Amino acid sequence: MNTSVSQGQDGTNNRAGKTGKVWFITGASRGFGLEIAKAALSAGDKVVATVRSKPEQLAAALQNHPDLLVVLLDVVREEQAKAAVSQAIARFGTIDILVNNAGYGIVAAVEEASDAETRKQYDTNVFGLLNVTRAVLPYLRKQRSGHVINVSSLFGYGAIPGWGLYGSTKYAVEGLSEGLAVELAPLGIHVTVVAPGLFSTDFLSPDSYTLAQNIIEDYTPTVGPMRNGADKLHGNQPGDPAKLAQVILQLVNAKNPPVHLPIGKDSVGMYRKMAAKNGQEVEAWAAVSTGTDHVKA
Q1: Is residue 197 assigned to a domain?
Q2: Which of 6, 46, 153, 166 is catalytic?
Q3: Catalytic residue among 21, 38, 46, 170, which?
Q4: Vertex 168: Cα angle to 162 and 172 (nearest 5)
Q5: Closest Cα to residue 165, out of 214, 105, 216?
Q6: b vs e for 193-228, b when ≥16 Cβ sit within 10 Å of the residue's Cβ?
Q7: According to the model, what pLDDT value does residue 19 have?
Q8: Residue 61 lies in a domain
Q9: pLDDT lower than 50: segments of the chain
Q10: Which domain holds residue 139?
Q11: What's the number of domains the chain is made of?
Q12: 261-294 tens-digit pLDDT
């Protein structure tokens, strides 16, 4: 069954005769994904925007743009990822930029989260990202060009009580991005992992993150305030998602894009804080930790 909503006049490949990049953006129904899609279309590029449901709503939100293709995709379903990418290639002939944006958060002490809750978090934020990346990379390798942008978080730099499990998925995204970067660089493909701080998206709205079902009273002083008040931050975040989208546009047009890019004052601050802390700890134990070689006779 064809699950796409094509905004072209006749459904044919309309890439010929036009310039501009082709973007494949997951989690495009709102937040960063939606803003990046808007920015790319405004820049004259083409966009394949994926959603888990109601593609017609996203098409309408993007004003039924002629260079837009909306595709149904639940990133945890590998076959859906392959099918969505095939629809993108059939419509536009190529993919130049992959934005792995789909994800969600869970508020819980690490011990509180059940095995099922933990696996669901990793299935979307890590394994879902891998499903889409594996589906797109054969086309990028064939053309020896492209840019993979993985969305991490400032929680991928340092831990905050209640967000340790979510943050661990973003640490995984950071590590996967580094591995991809060194493997794909010889093939002409860039990889950047962007780590937004707190932006005024729906991420902290009550219907956008989950709470662990199990509550352990010992964690009330640390996790409790976040469990009871994360949604109160919704609407008060300092970052403007539209400005983040403009940063992403600059990023994909850079000749030598970075592998790591914190976005937002709070994210840059978190990176600097953790880098300094980690450096101090390493140096404090350097004499002990480096004395582990075999003694030569």
Answers
A1: yes
A2: 166
A3: 170
A4: 160
A5: 105
A6: bbbbbbbbbbbbeeebbbbbeeeeeebeeebeebbe
A7: 55
A8: yes
A9: 1-3, 6-18
A10: 4-266
A11: 1
A12: 999 999 999 999 999 999 999 999 999 999 999 9
Q: Is 152 a catalytic residue?
A: yes
CB 83 within 8 A of CB 62: no
Q: Can you give the CATH number for the domain in which 257 is found?
A: 3.40.50.720
pTM for this structure? 0.89
Residue 205 catalytic?
Answer: no
The answer to whether the beta carbons of residues 108 and 162 sit under 8 Å apart is yes
Is residue 260 in a domain? yes
**Which of 6, 29, 152, 267 does the annotation list as catalytic?**
152
Structure tokens at 57: 């709503």
- Give 167-172 contacts, CB < 8 A, sequence gap 24+: 168/110, 169/103, 169/121, 169/122, 169/125, 169/126, 170/125, 170/195, 172/122, 172/125, 172/126
Which runs of E-coded beta strand occur in 241-292? 260-263
pLDDT digits (tens, 9 = 90+) for 230-266: 655 655 666 788 999 999 999 999 999 999 999 999 9
273 tagged catalytic? no
- Within-domain flag for 108: yes
